[in-house]
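**User:**
Everyone, produce one record:

**Assistant:**
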Amino acid sequence: MNKFNALVVAAIVSITAATPAMAQFGGLGGFGGGAKAGSADSGTLDNDIKNFTEKSSQVNKYAAQALLAITAAYASDEERANAVAKLEKLNATTDPKEQNAIVTEINKSEGAKVAQLAESKDLGDKTKSLDKEKQKQVGAAVTNYLIAGARAVDLSKSGQALLQGASGNPMALPKLASVKDALPLLGDAASNAGKVLPKFVNVLRGAKIELPKVTADSKPQDISSI
């Protein structure tokens, strides 16, 4: 695993440890940065919330798509059809609350399957036996998860800063509902990534599938269809 990927995993582990507290929106104080604490009192609050919500929605969608792409690659025909149906539903929705509900379900169901795959002793053999298209699919999904994980770290900082900045302004709190809704999903993405990344990166390289070096600013690959 290259240095950047190792740093992403370390950051993800840190966020994962904070996830229970994150649900109460008080566990990321050590991740300062992002939006400034005083922004809740400025005229930029609405823009900050809008930008955060749009970016976190995209990150959570990338992570959910990646989970589905991974499970579908190793699945039976019936299970693959189920994953495709979930992906189509995720891609079709334009309602933020509906997307959050879909992502929550995917994080739970597909996250468990991916975690089980990551722990299986024959994952390397299974990966080598996949056809080239499915190997490419898994590689793209893991790459996207690396990007989503890096972005989730940054967004968690920003979201927590927005909440902290509004703590002294009760009138601002109702505007932050979307931030509160997004933070646990970012935590889910981080938690699942912490289980998936190290094992799958090593397995893919063992199968001679090299992953590109990525940063939070890297462009995710298109896995909107599988």
Summary: The chain has one domain: 3-9+43-206. The CA atoms of residues 40 and 192 lie 31 Å apart.
